[in-house]
Amino acid sequence: MKYTFPNGFLWGAATSAFQIEGSPLADGATPSTWYEFTRRPGAIADGTNGDVACDHYHRFPEDIRQMKDLGVTAYRFSTGWTRIHPQPGVVNQAGLDFYSRLVDLLLDAGITPLLTIFHLEEPMWLARQGGFTRRAAVDALVDYGTTLMRALGDRVKLWCTINEPSLYSYQGYAIAEYPPAHRFDLRGMFHCAHNLLLAHARLSDACKALVTNAMTGLAHYYVDVVPANPASARDARAASFMDDMANGVVLEPLFHGRYPEQVVRRMSCFLPRGFEKDLPLIQGRQTYIGINYYRRNRYRYSFFMPFLHAVEHVDPAAPRTAMGDEIHPPGVYRALMRMKTKMGNPPCIITENGPPIPDVPGTDPLDDEARIAYMTDHIAHIGRALQEGSDCRGYFFWSLLDNFEWSKGLSMRCGLFRTDFVTQKREWKKSAAWYQDFIRKGWLEHSAASC
Ligand code: BGC
């Protein structure tokens, strides 16, 4: 089957500030939660940190030249909050100037910028006050977002308010993978996620008021959730609840102004008091929905698992990435079709998708056929959703270049470009050449299997 894509479909690559920039305290910036977390012994699997990362803070002109050669028509990046607001209410002009130059160079190169305001990092000054478990954080984030909109909104028209509110809250408060590294703090998790949704709504409104012709949305970490045994009614119920916990808690408030019924029934004691009153404010503020798609999760019913009554079933035969994500390309088709049939077919952008491929001694690190297969399969499933009426407008590959992969460190290697973290040389992997070729051509042939 031949899959074609509409004119103007955005073909991009994505990154985030802390993961690539390095120089976290340069030109007036103050420590972020990740700056502090990477200094805790044992917090990062390979013992690395983001102090240099890809040194993009100094090398962004070269990176933009490479992007131009690559042929991407759009680039998703995030801004470092403490570069802009090193202290509450204080604006750091040097930080704004850095991103302003970045945006200008992108536009000169003919690349559309997609700016993410909040990508998994908070200022330490905010975290010390309880971060997003407290509602005051919403005002701080809106303040920061509006500073950006005023400074860059004449040139940046595509905005992503928040990256992955559900994953951020889960990793930070339930499983201690991200700062503040709490465990089983369900109250913290639900408060954080709810406040991020509120911030998203207020940022979206601000964007419409301050930026002409803006498109605004958030990037949802979409999990393709299925029962371990499709014939088991108990597994099906467990999966339906876990789907609500992973997807419903974000998509239902955004599109229907409610939390999923079974989440309210079983979890409302962890939500902020009076959360119902916020729901009409959260509903329908976005003009598009971003989907970050990486994995399928299978669930089994378990009487013993507190609150959830579900446990993840890991099928040893299923293909997985080095980070343990089950690779299941039809999941991106299912995500887009769910947006079409259940959420009113909003404009969608695949804001992230891509596998890590760490180095294997004795093999050529630039030879990443597995990444090409991954991209081909996922893009074909996006093409299939488009043929069936999805309003998908773009695809951003994660990531442009190998970078600091949060608690896994520098060794995960998600890039189209290889980063030598000693010399900072960038080299094209086979996948980069494949993507360049594909973008020029604009179509692919594939037998995108049915789900
Ligand atoms: C995040 C990225 C991260 C990627 C790969 C996403 O959840 O938005 O920052 O690097 O996954 O793990």
User: How much is the average pLDDT?
Assistant: 98
Count of individual helical segments: 15
The unreliable regions are: none
Beginning-to-end CA distance, first to last residue: 16 Å
- Computed Rg: 21 Å
Largest sheet: 8 strands, parallel, barrel
Q: What letter string, H or E per element, gives the SSE order?
A: EEHHHEHHEHHEHHEHHHEEHEHEEEHE
Spatial ordering of strands, largest sheet:
2-3-4-5-6-7-9-10
Shape: globular
Helix-residue proportion: 40-55%
* Strand-residue proportion: 15-25%
Spell out which ligands are present: beta-D-glucopyranose
Task: Summarize the structure in words.
The chain has 451 residues and is an alpha/beta fold. Helices cover 40% and strands 17% of the residues. It has helices spanning 17-20, 33-37, 56-70, 81-84, 93-108, 124-127, 136-152, 165-173, 186-210, 233-256, 261-267, 275-282, 330-342, 369-387, 430-441, and strands at 2-4, 10-14, 74-78, 112-118, 158-163, 215-227, 289-301, 310-312, 348-352, 392-398, 417-419, 426-428, 443-445. The strands form three sheets. The protein has an eight-stranded parallel β-barrel, surrounded by seven helices. Strands 1-13 form a two-stranded antiparallel sheet. The structure holds beta-D-glucopyranose. Beta-D-glucopyranose (BGC) binds next to loops.
